[in-house]
Amino acid sequence: MEIVFAPWRLEYVTAGKHAKGCIFCRAFTDEPSLDNLVLYRDERVAVVLNKYPYTNGHVLVVPRPHVDTLTGLDREIRSAAAEVTAFCEALLRKTYSPSGINVGLNLGQAAGAGILDHIHWHVLPRWTGDTNFVTVCSDLRVIPEDIPEVFEKLRRQFPPRIE
Question: Which of 102, 107, 121, 136 reaches 20 to 30 Å from 22, CA-CA?
Answer without folding.
Answer: 102
